[in-house]
Write a structure and sequence with these properties.
Layout lengths: L17 E8 L2 E7 L2 H11 L8 E9 L10 E6 L5 E4 L6 E10 L5 E6 L3 E2 L13 H7 L3 H14 L21
Antiparallel strand pairs: 1-2, 2-5, 3-4, 3-6, 6-7, 6-8
């Protein structure tokens, strides 16, 4: 009998931690992740709490497309994801660059990033101003623009580059740690 390699069973886990961000449309992003059991156990031991009791979040960062890796994001949004392993973010904007962190919040409410995603750029929308669409139609199609401006103006008061740092992501298995 012929056995196709395509009938192989997907592994239940990938045995390493990862996060991947993808663009579904100019207004929707999809992110999925996995935190390896070893990392979950290490974090649970550090915080002296079971992994299932720790509040889990995905923090989305929006950048103007032409910015470089070390510029401040135009917007940050935290979404509590509980025990999910993927999430649709439906508040994206066209022609923006996005990244996401998966992490927890500690007892003081500080976000502790555990995984950092790739960057993904949302495409132009058919409602973009270059398409000669009346401004009233644009506002009806993109009511979130005002929220983006509001978040951008308040971000400068609360932004800290140290929020983006995590000691958990510095070390890999190749540096002597054993699985």
């Amino acid at each position: 009998m012929f056995h196709s390699p395509l009938t192989a069973v997907w592994p239940p886990t990938y045995r390493h931690s990862f996060i991947h961000l993808m663009v579904q449309s100019p207004y929707v992003l999809f992110v999925y992740w996995e935190v390896h059991e070893r990392k979950r156990n290490m974090i649970a031991a550090h915080y002296r709490m079971p992994w299932s009791s720790l509040p889990k979040f995905v923090r989305f960062y929006a950048y103007e497309e032409e910015t470089t890796a070390f510029h401040r994001p135009a917007m940050m949004m935290d979404v509590e994801v509980h025990e999910a392993s993927s999430w649709y973010y439906k508040e994206a904007h066209p022609q923006m660059m996005y990244a996401a962190d998966y992490g927890i919040t500690n007892r003081e409410g500080q976000f502790v990033p555990l995984l950092r995603s790739n960057r993904a750029c949302t495409p132009l929308s058919k409602f973009a101003p270059e398409a000669n669409v009346p401004e009233a139609s644009l506002q009806a199609a993109r009511p979130q623009d005002e929220q983006l401006k509001l978040a951008s103006s308040t971000l400068s008061d609360t932004y800290s580059p140290f929020d983006l740092f995590s000691t958990y992501t510095l070390y890999s298995n190749q540096e002597g740690a054993k699985s």
